[in-house]
Amino acid sequence: MPSTNGNIENEGYWKIVHIPDKLPIPPHLQPTVNVYASIINPKHANTLIRKLNKISLLEDLHHVKRICKRCVEGNVQLLMILCLASHDSGQLEDMPSEIAELIESYQLSTFITKVSKYPATSKEDWEEQCKLWPTSYHPPTYNIDGITGFSEENSQSILEFMKSAVDLAKSVDGQIVNAAVIVNPTSNQVVARSCDQWAEQQSQASCFRHPFHHAAMVAIENSAARDRYLFPASEPVGDNCCQADFVDSPLTVSPSKRQKINTNVEDSGIQNGETSACGSTPARPYLCTGYDIYLVWEPCIMCAMALVHQRIKRIFYAFPNPNAGALGKVMLSLQLLELIKTKCKFNRRDALQIISHL
Amino acid sequence: MEACDTEEIRGADPCMKLALQQAKLALNNLEVPVGCIIIEDEKVIASGRNRTTETRNATRHAELEAVDILLDQWQKKGLSNVDIAKRFSKCTLYVTCEPCIMCAAALSIIGIKEVFYGCANDKFGGCGSILALHTSQSEWSTRDEVSNGKGFKCTGGIMVSEAISLLQSFYEQGNPNAPKPDRRPVHNL
Ligand SMILES: [Zn+2]
Ligand SMILES: [Zn+2]
Fold first, then answer.
1. Backbone φ and ψ of A84, nearest 5°
2. CB under 8 Å to A149, separation ≥6 — which residues?
3. Which of A35, A200, A210, B16 would bridge B159 by S-S if both were Cys, CB 3.0 to 4.6 A apart?
4. pLDDT tens, B18-64?
């Protein structure tokens, strides 16, 4: 089978697949909400909008346009949304009194209509939405080295790193284990490697398995240990180290800025166990900001949240874990990714899956 | 916790007070003030506090700190995984803030019996605020069958104002390491 992913050994087997953060919904089945609308006199449009903006903000419907123009038998008709309607009943009881007053004084004849509940995520969705009532559509602006496609060069290194994770997992004899490799993508340097630690322990004939030492958790600790080793002093950090998870911080340094700072650190020969030898003091990295993690198996919910805490930027995994996987299971990935997007104001988690493609 | 090691304690508030002490300890160490204790047979058997800054490992939350102490102890005693699971199934955790998704999943993996928490965790809460992992049964099982995820009983709202005011004072006193925009009070974790 033809592959665009270069000359890697397993050519043809691997393909990078983006795990969507939403359950794919056919455009015509998008959820809707009911609103009260009315045909209005165009002369009153501005006044009405001003008044409505004071008394009836459509908080969760920013994507929905307030006014809709319709052509009925050659005549242009203006329709306007007044407020949300909570019931299908068509009863006006639930209408705020200010709206009722407005209806009264402008002699509006209201009706209930459906509008799309969520902003469109694709052009197809948007076109479908506009059949109900016009909405605005903002194509996604993120494109950090292609959620929608990786360059040839990036695909190569992504597959190489994944391969090294798979090799690491294989090295624990006979057992199915997970392995993790944390990489700084700006320098392509490996920051930490690990396997499920319980597996190592078990192969040493111990009956104890640490229940939390999954590969991702161990890799996080390894990267933290590396940080402590490279920057032993408790010198002030340029960042709110480790605390950012706890605060709502839209104004913190953007990851891209941090990444630039981190590059110094990565290039200073750490991998060989040397301490930084360069004249300028390298900045301390901020957790794993900007780093990627390669996992053989899809992370469980504990590990997925841990990776978010540690500020991992992208998660790549080879095999989905239908039982415990936190990212591929639509319900969860939806919630987790929603969480990441809306609650943490982090960059969008790029959950990617590299699946075997036979 | 030393004084209480041998004392029997009853009721949620006295236990939460001990967890709050741990949170204060975290605060004194310039960590986000969250603390917890683990109780078995009405005795405190472990305590933990947030150590994310010190360790530079953002997963070192109070809950994992406390559980790790017990895992370490019990492993050294030679307890098997089955024995350890039995012990945790008798343990109750008191934590000043709702466990995050990671910690809730971890507590479900070890099969803790019950969790009491103080304030809600609006950002990452795994016991109702964002996800409700305490209610799940087999859904959260991991590949390794020994540590199947289990649900646990969970009650929030114990001494909320104390928990929140600690967090508030953390952000008000300001973290000396924090850039200016972060030096403001936030109640959620
Ligand atoms: Zn895991
Ligand atoms: Zn936690």
1. -70, 145
2. none
3. B16
4. 999 999 999 999 999 999 999 999 999 999 999 999 999 999 999 99
How many whole angstroms separate alpha carbon A324 and alpha carbon B71? Answer: 22
Rounded to whole angstroms, the maximal C-alpha distance in chain B is 49
- Return the structure tokens found at B70: 């017990």
Q: Which residue has the tokens 């209610």?
A: B135
Locate A223 and state its tokens: 């990267």
Q: How much is the CA Rg of chain B, to the nearest whole Å?
A: 16
Residue A318 is encoded by which pair of tokens? 């080879």
Burial class of residue A164 (count of CB atoms within 10 Å of its CB; 0-12, 13-18, 19+): middle
Residue A287 CA, chain-centre distance (Å), reads 19
ipTM value for the complex: 0.86
Distance CA A113, CA A132 (A): 8
- Of A299, A294, A291, A292, nearest to A354 by C-alpha is A294
Residues of B within 8 A of A297 (CB-CB) are 143
Q: Is B98 a catalytic residue?
A: no
CA distance A273 to chain B (A): 19
CA of A165 to the centre of ligand 2 (A): 27
Asked whether A80 and A66 are in contact (CB, 8 A), the reply is yes
The rounded distance, in Å, linking the Cα atoms of A207 and A307 is 28
- Nearest CB among B59, B143, B176 relative to A310 is that of B59
The three-state secondary structure class of A295 is strand
Contact present, A327 and A321 (Cβ < 8 Å): no
Tokens standing for B137? 């049964």
Q: What digits encode the pLDDT tens for the residues A284-338?
A: 778 998 899 999 888 888 999 999 899 888 888 887 777 787 876 544 444 444 4
Both tokens assigned to A185: 């993508």
In Å, how far are A29, A253, A285 from A266, measured between CA atoms? 48, 19, 9
Q: Are A180 and A219 in contact (CB under 8 A)?
A: yes
Q: Are B64 and A303 in contact (CB under 8 A)?
A: no
Residue B92 tokens, joined = 């109750």
A232 HSE (CA, 13 A, CB side)? 3
Cα–Cα distance measured from residue B69 to residue B58, given in angstroms and rounded to the nearest whole number: 18
A268: closest CA among A259, A260, A280?
Answer: A280
Determine if the pTM surpasses 0.80: no
Q: What is the pLDDT of residues B55-114, one digit of tens each?
A: 999 999 999 999 999 999 998 998 988 899 999 999 999 999 999 999 999 999 999 999
User: Cα–Cα distance between B116 and B129 in angstroms, integer?
Assistant: 14
- Determine, for residues B32 and A246 on separate chains, whether the beta-carbon distance falls below 8 Å: yes
**Tokens, residue B129:** 């605020």
